[in-house]
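I'm stuck. Please check this protein.
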Amino acid sequence: MTLAQLPAARPLRGAVNVPGDKSIAHRALILGALAEGTLRLSNFPEGKDVLSTCLCLRLLGADLRRDGGKMEIRGTGLHGFRAPNSQLPCGNSGTTMRLLMGLLAGQPFETVLTGDASLSARPMRRVADPLSRMGARIKLTDAQRPPVRVRGRRPLSAFSYRLPVPSSQVKSALLLAGLWADGETCVIDPFGTRDHTERILEYLSPGCLQRKGSRIRLKAARLRSDKALALPGDASSAAALAAAAAIIPGSDITLRGVLLNGTRLGFFRALRRMGARIELLPLAVQGAEPVGDIRVRYAPLRAVRVEARMIASLIDEVPLLAVLA
């Protein structure tokens, strides 16, 4: 591999509005489609992964209406989805496929989820196994990869499950399936993975969740919307801009309206430990999430050790951190 080093023409200065967080957008789309009422999203992000979730939900009967950076979701309720007339194409979006596996586990019909060549090479057993224990019938290829055939069941069997690896997608799939369970579903997350699904569930159905330490308990509940939700700026997109400012001498930028959820700030914590001058300026709780500005100024960086316990909070930014190293 050949690496080229391109010097910056000038320092980065000014303020930047960061596009909406993709991880939250996936979950808001799915939970909004399952709610009763209309959920209005603003600062909706561009991106093929999020659009894959939109397409799959439409094929299931969801009513999604997009106007630029706004998205209106007219929910069907928990029992309003219908069997699609085709397979559900997830493109390259693992988030789309894994979260929809949880949703489809509670539907009274059979569905097939497909992906592109890259997604079709990714393992799905870690999602399929616990959903199968809840009563869904899930078939993968002999290599435990997509396409994924899901035959759902109602009700599903409530159970308790401890995540063996840090995966917010597995956790989210189980919580979604728990909406059709016959009792309380408990997911134990000892890694502290991102908690956007839990926050939106609490936003749409206050009291449906109990969180104590690493335990998340969910009782099947109706979701009610007729709400507006401004998506905070994507923490991963902000991380790329912060990294550039941290290594270009004289840089001083402010990233506006960024998600300040602690489960997503591992990169900024690591960057601060490396010597970058970073200020987190909390502004408000926006819907279900804390939001604020992040100011980043250049400073010489030094090597640091990133402990295993931090990985869950910077999982998407590991390649970026490697570049800085």
About this structure: The chain has a mean pLDDT of 95. The chain has two domains: 22-230, 232-324. The domain at 22-230 is CATH 3.65.10.10 (UDP-n-acetylglucosamine1-carboxyvinyl-transferase; Chain).
